[in-house]
Design a protein that fits this description.
heterodimer, A: alpha/beta, GMP Synthetase, Chain A, domain 3, 2 domains, globular
């Protein structure tokens, strides 16, 4: 009898657990979920927001065995908050929206200027959103940006979203700005967040911006000279002061940002040829070590000295050149130094004087100048950053060209 | 004397179990909230203080051979005093593990089982700990010996994998909330060394009682190192967690780990490790609570009361009305109670018993 009761009890407990946990399991059944790959947030005329959700279907394979590009679906809904937008969309599609594969969150410029903290906190409060989801501020309508984000070289839109920020590793013209880092910087007393600056290339732009310069260095989203099959482009960064967007960085300013935050791995710069005034040289630069930052507070204003060390190789080469001559290489190195110093310095003063936003996180170097947290709070780093002075020192060692050393 | 014998490594691991169970929840953040950027200095300072206290405990235990604190209480104040002290320790074991269990299950429910009633999640842990205790203390110790180093390693991996974002400068302002806060009120952070409680109960179980001092010091220092690791993750890498109060800061930190495009979403593995470590902690706590109960009541067969203790933990875990209440109990009340029981009550009994021994 005792044995029977014991067995009965075990069966009862197993049955209870099956019932209790099956609810959680059922709610995550793949048939009942719709996977969102991108969310777009636009402001609506009624004072609320227009939320766009991009979904993807699995890759279809034709009879010949070649895989076809999966179409993505973009649905939009107007709501006051992301929660109610998800609810409405759940009703419309008859499935539960799942954000665990959401790769990109796009805010239109006007929403970003208003402030996006409530969206960021809400999204980070959701267990499904990954901290690695990228944040993009679109110069155009977020919905339009999503509709034009079509993969060209990949089959799946998710694959494109997975790798689109990788170009920051070898160009420095955009950055891997994700929601996790955005939240960290939003909560930080010594820094401010950034987001990827997105937009449309000239062929697809809904609002034709003025292209003041046709130089690659000053290119940014919506103002680049790129034409291509995909409408959307991501060049530059959106700068935030707390949760509000206060400005934009172009390609070279973004490169400066990546160098300041030690995220740049390699990049190209174009300098004037010291030998020929009308000629330009492309130099392939790689940082040798992380920048050395020295911060002092002089008369209440931060004085920040930043020292960089780079190595370089000459990429562009013309006829009658000799790039094993130390004197010539030194002249190119000096030219590189002055060019980078001036670019970085301009960028730093822009963040300080124009944006008043310490996106480089220099504030953390000021912490050691104070004995207690209260002293630091009283100093008010974010307020004093606008009065900061900078000194940039660059030491580039251009070693040679790449395969051809003499022509 | 107990028939079950614990080796030196097993004993150290038992003491570390407690700190690891606490660290999975909000403990590292609570330490930082108290002392801000001076937490690293504070932890080093508190570890030194704790090591001195542990040396004192070893000295005070020296005259009592293989007796535990319950035997010493009997020697000091007779059976009534022994029953009072024993009841306090049983209550502490059960209440602390219940509150911790409730918070851990709430977090688990939020992350993975949103549609499952909390009682079933808690019940699953209770079954695990009861089952482990029924199999015997040796089983719990062996499992603990395997899982604890893995749990320790999991936290080290979180630190290493996120090390690219480390900001050592966050150690400044060096005095955090001030000198007084770091070195005086910051002493409250000593409650993180809750594992010391088990030092009062392990002497009868030790295979080599002469290594008691070595076990005590080693476990305290390892606890200090582990705490430094946990605090460093939040202070140097995820300082935003201090303001945002993540439900499980280490879990949230694990969500940031990815190795290229190949290895992502590793937090589930970490969670699995921590669940096993938590069941291990529960079974060890339950075992010590039962052994104290055995000493008080002189019952022969403890197997029959394992389920009772399990249900008691379940009942207490269900008492808090919601997460806010259980978090309040864990973050606000718990440190004061643990200091009172471990550092005030325990040491006072030992000192008084030593004085009595000296007189006789």
């Amino acid at each position: 009898m005792k044995y029977f009761i014991k067995k009965f009890f075990i069966v009862l407990v197993i049955a209870l657990f099956l019932v209790a946990f099956s609810q959680s399991y059922n709610s995550l059944s793949i048939d009942k979920l719709a996977y969102v790959v991108a969310i777009g947030v636009d402001s609506s005329q009624s004072g609320g927001y227009n939320f766009s959700f991009q979904f993807t279907t699995v890759t279809s394979t034709s009879e010949s065995g070649t895989s076809e590009k999966s179409p993505s679906i973009v649905n939009s809904v107007e709501a006051q908050s992301i929660g109610s937008a998800i609810n409405l969309m759940n009703t419309y599609i008859g499935k539960r929206l799942n954000l665990s594969h959401c790769k990109v969150i796009i805010f239109s410029e006007d929403v970003a200027v208003e402030g996006i903290s409530k969206h960021i906190y809400t999204l980070m409060n959701d267990t499904q959103i990954r901290p690695s989801a990228n944040i993009v501020v679109s110069k155009c309508n977020a919905q339009y940006y999503i509709e034009n984000s079509k993969p060209i070289l990949e089959n799946l839109i998710t694959k494109y979203y997975d790798i689109f920020d990788n170009s920051s590793n070898f160009t420095g013209y955009t950055a891997d700005a994700n929601i996790g880092d955005f939240l960290n910087n939003l909560e930080c007393d010594t820094c401010n967040p950034v987001a990827i600056l997105g937009g449309m290339n000239t062929e697809n732009a809904d609002n034709q911006s003025d292209m003041t310069e046709n130089k690659a260095s000053s290119a940014k989203s919506n103002e680049s000279s790129i034409t291509g099959k995909r409408g959307s482009e991501n060049i530059g960064l959106a700068v935030f002061k707390d949760d509000r967007m206060v400005g934009e960085l172009n390609a070279y300013e973004c490169l400066s940002y990546l160098n300041m935050t030690h995220q740049a791995k390699m990049f190209f710069i174009t300098i004037q040829d010291p030998e020929k005034e009308d000629n330009y040289l492309d130099i392939y630069i790689s940082p040798l070590r992380s920048p050395k930052v020295d911060l002092n507070i002089i008369n209440g204003s931060p004085y920040i000295k930043v020292k960089f060390e780079f190595s370089g190789r000459i990429y562009s080469i013309d006829s009658d050149r000799e790039y094993l001559d130390t004197k010539k290489l030194d002249a190119i190195s000096t030219s590189c130094n002055s060019y980078i110093e001036s670019t970085f310095s301009d960028y730093l003063y822009k963040t300080s004087r124009e944006f008043k936003s310490d996106i480089n996180g220099f504030g953390k170097y000021a912490l050691s100048k104070f004995l207690t947290t209260k002293d630091f709070e009283n100093y008010n780093w974010n307020k004093n950053y606008k009065d900061a002075f900078f000194s940039v020192e660059v030491n580039t060692s251009v070693e040679s060209s790449i395969l051809l050393t003499e022509t | 004397m107990s028939k079950i014998k614990i080796g030196t490594t097993e004993a150290v691991v038992v003491i570390l179990t407690v700190i690891i169970a606490h660290s999975i929840l909000s403990m590292p953040r609570n330490l930082i909230v108290r002392t801000q950027s001076a937490t690293i200095i504070n932890i080093i300072y508190v570890t030194i203080i704790c090591t001195l206290i542990v040396l004192l405990i070893c000295k005070l235990f020296k005259k009592f051979g293989n007796s535990d604190i319950i035997d010493i209480s009997e020697y000091l104040g007779g059976k009534v005093f022994k029953n009072i002290i024993g009841s306090i320790f049983i209550l502490y074991f059960i209440a602390s593990s219940s509150i911790l269990l409730r918070n851990f299950c709430e977090a688990l429910g939020i992350v993975y089982f949103q549609m499952t009633p909390i009682i079933f999640i808690i019940f699953l842990f209770i079954i695990g700990s009861c089952f482990s205790n029924r199999l015997g203390f040796n089983v719990s110790l062996k499992v603990n010996l395997i899982i604890l180093p893995i749990a320790f390693l999991s936290v080290a991996i979180i630190f290493i994998a996120n090390a690219k974002n480390i900001d050592i400068q966050k150690i400044f302002p060096i005095l955090g909330n001030g000198f007084g806060n770091t070195f005086f009120t910051g002493l409250l952070n000593i409650s993180a060394f809750e594992g010391i409680l088990y030092l009062y109960f392990i002497p009868p179980y030790l295979k080599e009682p002469e290594k008691y001092k070595k076990i005590s010091i080693l476990s305290t220092l390892l606890s200090g190192v582990y705490l430094l690791l946990c605090v460093s993750i939040i202070l140097f890498i995820f300082s935003s967690f201090i303001a945002t109060n993540e439900i499980m800061p280490l879990y949230s930190a694990a969500r940031y780990i990815s190795f290229g495009n190949f290895l992502q979403r590793l937090e589930s593995i970490f969670m699995l490790i921590w669940i096993i470590a938590f069941i291990s902690y529960l079974s060890i706590t339950c075992k010590f609570a039962i052994s104290v109960f055995k000493k008080l009541t002189n019952i022969k067969n403890t197997k029959e009361i394992i389920n009772v203790f399990g249900l008691l933990i379940l009942a207490i875990a269900m008492l808090p009305k919601n997460l806010a209440v259980s978090t309040f109990l864990e973050t606000e009340i718990y440190s004061y109670v643990s200091i009172a029981v471990i550092f005030v009550l325990g040491i006072t009994i030992l000192i008084l018993a030593n004085l009595k021994k000296k007189k006789t």
